């Protein structure tokens, strides 16, 4: 198992980035590493059931033109060892330990969906660790409709099985022509990596993460006013998984937060609009 933090030949793109592992305590965490070494790295935190191959290559590659980017799995997901946590707080503690084990004293975080829950919790648990925060397709603890993610998702997951389509077609994108075209383009991008692909989530890990999401939705609201770093929030205007009103709510509660809402876009608004989102994210991180 490769536990090195650096490798000699940087990958040209995310589809070619080698799989790496690092032991955090007794658990081996899988990650991929891309972009120029040095400076403050951008750590990517992904959605419910996501493995390393679920990060959008256009967004990873775009960020890696200017930044050292690290994509990782949660414990118990994909090629990472251990058992998937039942709380967002535990995922946050795992990620803090991972970042410190990798040797970083300061990071930027980009969290999508579940990853946005974890990114908020990391920032509140370890405020000195996070320089800048990007929250996409996500919402706050106790946010509107978050505890209903399972109820919203299961019928569309079944629809995906019945129509032989990836459920993300229905969960992440609108049913308009633009949405359907964007969904297909996104799903095609996720297949660009041919060798060394990650393992899919086990049904047990998938269900344990769903319990963590539901608990986050039922949790008492956190004091987001304590987040005193630059924050960029982005979502589509028709997010059915983490309703868009949560993005507006976070922007209102986090001092100075920037808010971007994409029209005719759903939960995966940043994937549909990656050509606009990446320059905005680079500008935000570089300011």
TrEMBL record:
Record flagged with keyword Hydrolase: yes
Report which superkingdom the organism of origin falls in. Answer: Bacteria
Query: InterPro entries under this entry?
Result: AB_hydrolase, AB_hydrolase_1, AB_hydrolase_fold
User: Which molecular function term from Gene Ontology is one that the record holds?
Assistant: hydrolase activity
Give UniProt keywords alphabetically: Hydrolase
In this chain the AB hydrolase-1 domain maps to 41-272
Q: Which PANTHER family match?
A: AB HYDROLASE-1 DOMAIN-CONTAINING PROTEIN, HYDROLASE, ALPHA/BETA FOLD FAMILY PROTEIN
Protein name, entry field: Alpha/beta hydrolase
Q: Which organism is it from?
A: Rhizobium chutanense
């Amino acid at each position: 198992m490769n536990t090195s933090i650096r490798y000699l030949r940087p990958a040209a793109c995310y589809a070619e980035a080698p799989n790496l592992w690092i032991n955090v305590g007794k658990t081996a965490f899988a990650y991929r590493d891309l972009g120029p070494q040095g400076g403050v790295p951008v750590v990517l935190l992904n959605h419910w059931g996501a493995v390393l191959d679920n990060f959008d290559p256009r967004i990873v590659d775009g960020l890696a033109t200017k930044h050292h980017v690290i994509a990782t799995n949660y414990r118990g997901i994909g090629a990472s060892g251990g058992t998937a946590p039942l709380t967002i707080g535990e995922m946050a503690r795992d990620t803090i330990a991972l970042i410190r084990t990798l040797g970083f004293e300061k990071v930027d975080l980009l969290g999508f969906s579940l990853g946005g829950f974890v990114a908020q919790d990391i920032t509140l648990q370890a405020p000195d660790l996070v320089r800048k925060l990007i929250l996409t397709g996500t919402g706050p603890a106790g946010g509107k409709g978050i505890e209903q993610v399972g109820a919203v998702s299961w019928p569309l997951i079944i629809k995906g099985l019945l129509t032989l389509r990836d459920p993300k077609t229905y969960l992440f994108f609108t049913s308009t022509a633009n949405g359907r075209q964007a969904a297909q383009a996104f799903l095609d991008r996720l297949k660009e990596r041919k060798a060394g692909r990650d393992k899919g989530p086990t049904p047990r890990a998938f269900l344990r993460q769903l319990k963590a999401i539901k608990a986050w939705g039922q949790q008492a609201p956190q004091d987001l006013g304590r987040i005193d770093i630059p924050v960029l929030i982005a979502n589509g205007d028709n997010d059915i998984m983490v309703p868009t009103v949560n993005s507006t709510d976070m922007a209102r509660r986090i001092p100075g937060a920037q808010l971007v809402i994409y029209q005719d876009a759903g939960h995966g608004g940043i994937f549909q609009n990656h050509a606009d989102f990446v320059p905005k994210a680079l500008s935000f991180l570089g300011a």
